[in-house]
């Protein structure tokens, strides 16, 4: 024991490190901020498990007088719209991410190739969209009037499919990670461009692709703006957008409940606040559970993104 | 003729790569370039008629009238002021806070605790603005919110947060920092981890203490990435985070004087009031000034240090 303490003291005096007082202060600052970041989610979870009457009497409390799972019960009883919204979100996230990956990886690979004659033109073609854009109204008019995306599932997918910034990141990634010699050797072995890309280049660029995929997945999962713009059909409402619609009233969820016999009497008895918070918890749950695992890759991705060509 | 011939030959020679860029190119045409030409609406009195092209062609040309109307309203001043002021605060204090937090995390002795803090701070980045709006409501709700409960406990009156504009500049700034500081500090933390350790060793041999090391090594080594990120942010200074200004204040009309930014104004013009021409003018004003700002700020950085510039 004594030996351990000596080692501990010795380490504490290490000139590399902060003095104990500063270390405690830094821990406090970082710890309090980190807690403040997590706290609201805990709070909403507690509210979702609070009894509705207690809520009406005492407001949102950290330690409610009366716990209850009524909120969740109602959500599951009338939950068709929640599950449909889950379906819409999962579909757009999966399909959108795949489309994004295909479009972005192909484009950025081509402009990373020095042998590609038009690489500068296409690089600028993508880059310029980061500098200037038509704005919301013309984009909306093109999407609705020309492409007919109004009330279409593609309205949730296509507007977010390509992103010039990701293209820049991937181009940098290819040009630093994929050696020219590799491509040359593929050519000598008689492989076509598509074969070289899929068999030689893609395996090497998996970390970069994973990063783009993660960012894109998060973007699709959390999107509500495209739904706000383009979607009126209640069957196509994604998760975030549904939460938005029930923000002030649970009406939306009842209107779209298939248990219409159930819904007539339900609105009065429905634990509105707790049900709403239960939905927030159910919608946020997957991402909260998944993010500590993904965080590592995000950090790697941010580092890749920070590399400038 | 010869030039065309050579061009066609190049096209054939590069056909594989041209096929590779095709899907994203089509996407860019429809979702980026066509809307750029669509800004011509800003100079027209837009009328929906049959089809996309017809609507644009048949609308009456009014020159700069839409801009004149826009800048004659008080809205133009309010949305410009709000967009700019919020972004300036976000850029300056966001930079200071993110770098400070990265340095704090990098210096904490117990690396496991530092990792835990970092994981906590990163969480808000994964949540949508809708969720953040709900979180905010649990604190600010008039009759049930935690903040009013605390106020009442200390004998103060409840405050109707969602209709008192004066509190919102502070609330929005705090919430924005809450959401992004963790994420941004990770970028700087990654850069700090990449700094050559021998620099610190050399400094220690020369007798530099921790603070001198931070001031003379860490911060200067972070300067390039700080410049690039700030430059990107300055280029976007005319753009506001729509979610922050729309979801968090719950689109409350009483707060428009401090929550209306160019993006929310354009959205409402399009979907609520339907003033297409004037709204497009506002959007074009935003894109155009944004464009000038990116070019200028990049030019200035180039003059000082070419390596730190964006392009």
Task: Write up this protein.
The complex is a heterodimer of chains A (309) and B (311). Chain A is mainly α. Chain A has helices at residues 2-12, 20-48, 52-58, 70-77, 80-112, 119-131, 136-146, 164-177, 180-188, 193-204, 206-221, 225-230, 239-245, 251-255, 260-269, 272-306. In chain A, α5 crosses α8 and α11 (206-221) packs antiparallel against α16. The mean pLDDT of chain A is 86. With 311 residues, chain B is an all-alpha fold. Chain B is built from 15 helices and 2 strands. Chain B has helices at 2-13, 15-38, 52-58, 65-72, 74-107, 111-122, 129-140, 146-153, 168-193, 197-205, 210-235, 242-246, 256-259, 262-273, 276-304, and strands at 44-45, 60-61. Chain B has a two-stranded antiparallel ribbon with strand order 1-2. The model of chain B has no long low-confidence stretch (mean pLDDT 91). Classes of the chains: A mainly alpha (309), B mainly alpha (311). Chains A and B meet through α2, α5, α6, α7 and α10 of A and α2, α5, α6, α7 and α8 of B.
Largest sheet of chain A: none
**How would you characterize the largest beta sheet of chain B?**
2 strands, antiparallel
Question: What helical percentage do the residues of chain B reach?
Answer: over 70%
Beta strand % of chain A: under 5%
What is the number of strand segments of chain A? Answer: 0
H-E order of chain B: HHEHEHHHHHHHHHHHH
Rg on CA atoms of chain B, Å: 25 Å
SSE arrangement:
The complex is a heterodimer of chains A (309) and B (311).
Chain A: H1 2-12, H2 20-48, H3 52-58, H4 70-77, H5 80-112, H6 119-131, H7 136-146, H8 164-177, H9 180-188, H10 193-204, H11 206-221, H12 225-230, H13 239-245, H14 251-255, H15 260-269, H16 272-306
Chain B: H1 2-13, H2 15-38, E1 44-45, H3 52-58, E2 60-61, H4 65-72, H5 74-107, H6 111-122, H7 129-140, H8 146-153, H9 168-193, H10 197-205, H11 210-235, H12 242-246, H13 256-259, H14 262-273, H15 276-304
Antiparallel strand pairs in B: 1-2
